[in-house]
Amino acid sequence: MATVTLRVNRKTHTIDVPTTTLLVEALRDTLRLTGTHVGCDTSQCGACTVHVDGRSVKSCTMLAVEAAGAEITTIEGMANGDQLHPMQAAFQEHHGLQCGFCTPGMVMSATDLCTRKPNPSEAEVRHWLEGNLCRCTGYHNIVKAVRAGGEAMKGAKR
Amino acid sequence: MKDFEFHRPSSVAEAVALLKDKPDAKLLSGGQSLLPVLKLDLAEPSDLISLAGIKELTDIRVDGDKLAIGALVTHAQVHESAAVQKLVPALATLAGWIGDAQVRNRGTIGGSIAHADPAADYPAALVALGATIATDRRKIPAEEFFKGLFETALERDEIVTAVHVPAAKRAAYEKFAHRASKFAVVGVMVAETAQGVRVAVTGAGPSVFRVLAMETALAKSFEPDALAGITVPAEDLMSDTEASAAYRAHLVGVMAKRAVQSALR
Amino acid sequence: MSGPQGIGAPVKRKEDRRFLLGKGQYTDDIILPDQSYATFVRSQHAHAKIKNIDSAAAKAAPGVLAVLTGEDVAASQLGGIPCGWLVKSKDGSNMVEPPHPALVQGTARHVGDPIVMIVAESKAAAKAAAALVDIDYDVLPAAGRLADAIKPGAPVVWPDAKTNVCFDWHIGDPAKTDAAFEKAAHVVELELTNNRVAPNAMEPRAANGNYDSANDHFTLYTTSQNPHLTRLLLAAFTLHVPEHKLRIIAPDVGGGFGSKIFHYAEELLVLWASKRVGRPVKWTSDRSEAFISDAHGRDHISKAQLALDANHKFLGLRVHTYANMGAYLSTFAPAVPTYLYATLLSGPYDFPAIYAEVKAVFTNTVAVDAYRGAGRPEASYLLERLVGHAARQLKVDPIELRRKNLIQPNQFPYQTQVALQYDIGDYQATLDMALEAIDYKGFPARRKASEAKGKLRGIGISTYIEACGIAPSALVGALGARAGLYEAATVRVHPTGSVTVMTGTHSHGQGHETAFAQLINERLGVAIENVEIVHGDTDRIPFGMGTYGSRSLSVGGSAIYKAVDKIVDKGKKIAAHLLEANVADIEFKDGNYRVVGTDRVKAFGEVAFAAYVPHNYPIDSVEPGLEENAFYDPKNFTFPGGTHLVEVEIDPETGVVEVVDVAIADDVGVIVNPMIVDGQAHGGLAQGIGQALFEEAIYDEAGQLVNGSFLNYVMPRAADLPSFKVGNHATACTHNPIGVKGVGEVGAIGVPPAVINAVLDALAPLGVTDISMPATPEKVWRAIQQAKGA
Questions:
Q1: What residues contact C323, with CB distance under 8 A and at least 6 apart?
Q2: Percent of chain C beyond pLDDT 90?
């Protein structure tokens, strides 16, 4: 067992979990932040993507103990109160989600891209999203949403 | 996952001491290779020693026309580094093709090469560029570092601290990626450095290898056509659902030719 | 309300907000008080006798609550997992219908067959205990692949049946077809396979069973496309607990594509185990477990012959197909290669004669059942490959060959030779639209430009049709269905005029919460913000058959329309009373009841209020309240169709096929929400292109699935696909009240042959005439090498 202090969505939590606990397990099962999903067991699908110190990582491929001291943001921490993050809003506007299962990972991955590269081309978006699988949308509207969301992020001060 | 004890030393010396003390321990860097292995119970270490707290391993430094890339530098950092882009742009390009964005944000150069996955990208670059791997106790030329399938020259208690990469006159990497895993089915780095021309191949065989016939031909004439007719034997290559050994052998030629074309651009 | 929200309005989805906030609730998100966790020990062998199970160490492991085997299942007299469809062979005999115990009893018949169930305090404890179970196998020869299972002397999956053939079925008129071939000027033949694929919805399956002993009541949370069907099967066949003691909840479900239609053993087992251990029991599939326990799709081997006259008019079609069933018959499995496949073999063409034979075959693999399109992609692939092949053989333009044979608009209703009657369509219109969208005329110039870059460019076409809106109950009953396929709805108008709709369909990405609200807006004028769509809970919804076969809007939406009709009629009576007019003089329009030809009006909300506060009310003849149920049984299938065009560029050195352009024009009937319709088309296209170029569940001859993870099962990613050009040309369905046909499957059905025809078009100059799906880089490279060598 390990006692881990995690900073998630601007709140500090101290939890006792087995040392083997993955970050995604701590988020979902212990902190009950179930917006972060698990779609595979080989670190491929990206449904579990969260931000660790501002960068997108697969929370299924990181131990909770490794995340101690880091600033973690999950999909639940993206909106500002009632107001969707510009990337979340763009996904709704452009129908970039269907079943919603890959969506949190897509949004987290996309905001990381657009934070670092405010005007990604279609090809850059598609390349960046290689770590996120979607089975519903054919990516068409996700790519549109990411580009629009990136544009909106430039204008928004959060 | 089997239970283990977790350690987070703050110096290389402390980490080495832990390794000496715990015979079944494993080092944890970015975890992008190790955690998938642990999740499948393919390894059951008694202890995990995280290097994340060792600040001395996190820098990219420029020393004349050489790069010193700390073992904990992530693939994303290599890809985005102005110094790498300036001195060895082919290495920056390669780093941007490793795995996917999330893997590049966590995975480190030290972790990747110590794991020595036969389909990893870095080995081709490090061998072709004549890089040197620095450890807590010595410096190992890249070509001597990669010994085989998941096998390196590292001693059990030895830690990679940095990778020293000399600037190349020209170099390029071309990769045929596995369409599911994004590992290299075949990745070829062609580099012309002070040591001459080198062609190194990853993904195709059990470990990175050089193609001497291609190197000789390119030393005479650094042109794509110089490689015409040079083949690698399929016998020693890997085969899986994505690519047979014969197809891999063919792709080595195609990727090498394209790497030369890119290097000339 | 901002802007129009009725039929045709591209309104944003109501359900998106909770998903975007991370507040969706999927089955695995639910942790019940005192939750325990299950895992399964599954067969590592494709075919093996279980000599002994040593579970002593597992039982003694920390945190273990129960270790259960097939013997326990038998002792509890749980029913076997049933098949929902009986297909009869040519000779009138019933299909071979093997037993399917929830846990293996005696012999495991595929890799992944569950043998032992472990229930423990935590997932980790369950898995640790599973590793301690020691199973002594007697490994038997296995029929691992369809091609092997049909060979004489192949290992037999079900020894009592003496053969691997489940049924030997046919449709059409053999004599008429023989006669057509006799007079043919040309006969073209093709052998082809339809590759086996794994559905891989992003959310793995999960089930959480909870037995409440105080009330003797079971609740199951499950990843289902049709909770009522699951309840029906649990009640009648497997758990033997009557419906009123069973509540099935399918909360947010992360994609299904068919794979979550079926009643799976795990659903039964978590309920059963919950009663045994006295705690809720949750199982969540790992992805690698999903590959060997979710039903797969497709897997056909076929021979097809096309007879044409001297003017290239189609005279007849002859088809012989082997279809893989896997080791056990899953819920819909026998219907897929028969009534959902062979009945579609006329495609959009005017065929005077068709004869098709289908042999369903058992193999030692996980079950094969409906996957997006289910039978219809296999039919369109066969037919469109065959027509493309004919065009190349006869050296005629593939567009012209199709034009010549398409059913003409004035031929509707069109009776095919394989049982279906198409009500309406305009195949020429969608063909013209798609050709225009992709700039077909400009293709030769684009091909030249590709050649200049050293690339091979090809264009491929598919003119397809599908049957959906499943299905008229009496018809499918006559064909062997063991259930009706109507849909149910309740429309509850609240006193203040807001509306709750209970639907028996289930939304797992299709956007019902929005599209169905638009139906209410269209009919009652209520803003969609004031409409709540409830689905996925057998205690809240009267009944339903669920979502598959592109049926939700055409069948489920029509049920809502029927219920709304009753609401409107009742409202007229109330309004007539309030307006002191005759019912016959009341019209309902734009949310208002009006005395025809006057300005005397009662708003819908006022009428609803009166229904619940019946002070001034026709109480002697009209009951208070405003809530209606309806069941809708479709009169016919619906027949979406259209043209899909694909352009590819091939790197001849590597064999890599890049899809550079996709333009489709579909007739999906009346469109309720064009944004959602386009999104459905996009997703289907990605899965169709996935099947054509990327995906294949590969079994070796021993029955091991060799690429059962996301590391080696290749699915298209963002960088593998272009943006899609999607067009629509609607002819309204003639027999449902909304005029809708269905769109969920069009991409998966229409596009695979277009992709392969494009690949073959690109490779034709090299002399390549055939390639199988998926056209992987290595396969294309080899075809090029072979052609060069020939």
A1: C299, C300, C336, C337, C341, C358, C359, C360, C361, C368
A2: 99
Q: Among B4, B6, B36, whose Cβ lies nearest the Cβ of A61? A: B36
- Are A20 and B182 inside 8 Å of each other by CB? no
What does the DSSP 8-state code read for residue C440?
A: G
Per-residue pLDDT reduced to its tens digit, C402-456:
999 999 999 999 999 999 999 999 999 999 999 999 999 999 999 999 999 999 9
Q: Which of A2, A20, A56 sits opposite B102 (nearest CB)?
A: A56
Distance between CA atoms of residues C466 and C460, nearest Å: 19
With CA atoms as reference, the chain B residue closest to C694 would be B179
Whether the Cβ atoms of residue C572 and residue C584 lie closer than 8 Å to each other = no
Closest CA relative to residue C361, chosen from C50, C89, C637: C89
Residues B71/B57, Cβ–Cβ less than 8 Å:
yes
Among B41, B102, B181, most A C-beta atoms within 10 A, so best to mutate, is B102
The three-point CA angle C725-C728-C734 to 5° equals 160
Q: State pLDDT tens for residues C176-230.
A: 999 999 999 999 999 999 999 999 999 999 999 999 999 999 999 999 999 999 9
- Least CA distance to B243: which residue of chain C? C778
- What digits encode the pLDDT tens for the residues C98-157? 999 999 999 999 999 999 999 999 999 999 999 999 999 999 999 999 999 999 999 999
Structure confidence by residue, pLDDT tens digits, B188-239: 999 999 999 999 999 999 999 999 999 999 999 999 999 999 999 999 999 9
b or e along C483-521 (b: 16 or more beta carbons within 10 Å of the residue's beta carbon)? bbbbbbbbbbbbeebbbbbbbbbbbbbbbbbbbbbbbbb
pTM, rounded to two decimals? 0.98
Q: Which of B3, B31, B36 sits opposite A19 (nearest CB)?
A: B3
Query: Which residue shows structure tokens 């639209």?
Result: C433
- The stretch C671-697 carries a mean pLDDT of 98
Give Dmax (Cα) for chain A: 46
Task: Give the span between the Cα atoms of C334 and C342, in whole angstroms.
Answer: 12
Total count of residues recorded for chain C: 790
Residue C71 confidence (pLDDT): 98
3-class DSSP assignment, residue C425: coil
Contacts of C615 (CB under 8 A, 6+ apart): none
Does A20 reach chain B within 8 Å, measured CB to CB? Answer: yes
Question: How far, in Å, CA of A47 to CA of C408, rounded?
Answer: 47
- Give the Cα-Cα-Cα angle C391, C396, C401 (nearest 5 degrees): 70
What does the alpha-carbon distance between residue C489 and residue C666 come to, in Å, rounded to a whole number? Answer: 28
Joined tokens for residue C333: 């499995």
Residues 61-120 of C with CB under 8 A from B: none
ipTM value > 0.95: yes
Backbone φ and ψ for C477, nearest 5 degrees, come out as: -60, -40
The closest CB to that of B35, out of A52, A55, A62, belongs to: A62
- Residue ranges of alpha helices (H) inside C630-724 are 674-689
> What pairs with residue A47 in β-bridges?
none
Label residue C77 left, alpha or beta by phi (over 0 means left) and psi (-120 to 50 means alpha): left
CA dihedral C415, C420, C425, C429 (to 10 degrees): -90
CA distance C698 to C195: 9
pLDDT tens for each residue of C487-527 = 999 999 999 999 999 999 999 999 999 999 999 999 999 99
Is B245 part of the contact surface with chain A (CB cutoff 8 Å)? Answer: no
pLDDT in the model for residue C1: 45
Query: Are the CB atoms for C755 and C689 separated by under 8 Å?
Result: yes
Strands C354-362 and C314-326, bridge-based pairing:
parallel
Inter-chain residue contact B179 with C698, CB threshold 8 Å = no
